[in-house]
Specification:
By secondary structure, the protein is α/β, with parallel strands linked by helices. Helix content is about 35%, strand content about 20%. It is built from eight helices and seven strands. A seven-stranded mixed β-sheet has the order 3-2-1-4-5-7-6, sandwiched between helices. The two termini are about 25 Å apart. The structure holds S-adenosylmethionine (SAM). S-adenosylmethionine binds next to helix 5 and helix 8.
Length: about 230
């Protein structure tokens, strides 16, 4: 069991890709990880220290190369951004960009986001959680790998501040419908979109590389924003 009382998760929402590091990514991991990286630990992160004078803590899960994370952090210097990603080349790319842009308000964790949620983040610590274009795991037999599920909803119901938001986006309609159904059926969350659960893309979410690829293939894009309701009276 963990500090959030959820059992260790066995089925992963990713498969380790063997992607080679470019020399630039390797250098960034060696030189910049000590500056902007936070090692995974099975103890709570001292978020007060991390936050310093920042107003809000915002978490992006599955940052890919970090394009959205970098853009959001640039445009929102009052917030501290935490990015979680398992794919090492993506983390290397993002570290290089953080350093090049001189961004003081971004930190990265290179680990399974579910375990980060289970172990490292204190209850009621997150103002926003972003999940942009998560792997849809198209085949029915792989649906169990989808990151959005009851356990994900339960974890975020503990870790988000009341009034905090989960913002998801997908370019795969069936996955967008699935995510909408998951969240619409959960009375702890308030839908900020239309009756189907879809919202307009807010200006803070840039169009990502992954999204651009989907758009070229003729896919639509669906944003979903759900707010954690205030705690109920006992
Ligand atoms: C389809 S890509 C989208 C990347 C990026 N959000 C974008 O829009 O371009 C999904 C990403 O999520 C990462 N991922 C999947 N499951 C994860 C997990 N449990 N923890 C951390 N990263 C994860 C994958 O490694 C991959 O980079």
């Amino acid at each position: 069991m963990t500090n959030n009382n959820f059992p260790i998760r066995a089925i992963k929402s990713y498969v380790r890709r063997s992607g080679r590091l470019t020399p630039g990514q390797k250098k960034a991991l060696e030189q910049y990880w000590p500056l902007y990286g936070i090692d995974f630990q099975t103890a709570l992160l001292e978020t007060c220290k991390l936050m310093g004078e920042y107003d809000a803590l915002k978490l992006e899960i599955g940052i890919g190369n970090g394009d959205a994370l970098i853009s959001m952090a640039q445009n929102d210097p009052q917030s501290m951004y935490l990015g979680v990603e398992v794919h090492e080349p993506g983390v290397g790319r993002c570290l290089a960009d953080i350093h090049q842009q001189g961004l003081p308000n971004v930190r990265l964790i290179r680990h399974d986001a579910i375990e980060v949620l289970q172990h490292m983040l204190p209850p009621r610590s997150l103002d926003r959680v972003f999940l942009f274009f998560p792997d849809p795991w198209h085949k029915k037999r792989h649906h169990k790998r989808r990151i959005v599920n009851a356990r994900f909803r339960d974890l975020l119901a503990v870790l988000l501040k009341p009034g905090g938001c989960l913002h998801m986006a997908s370019d795969w309609q069936e996955y967008a419908e699935y995510m909408a159904a998951e969240l619409l059926s959960d009375s702890r969350y308030m839908n900020k979109g239309d009756t189907r659960g879809y919202a307009q893309r807010p200006d803070y979410r840039p169009v990502t590389r992954f999204e651009t690829r989907g758009l070229k293939l003729g896919h639509g894009v669906w944003d979903l924003i759900f707010e954690l309701k205030p705690d109920r009276e006992p």
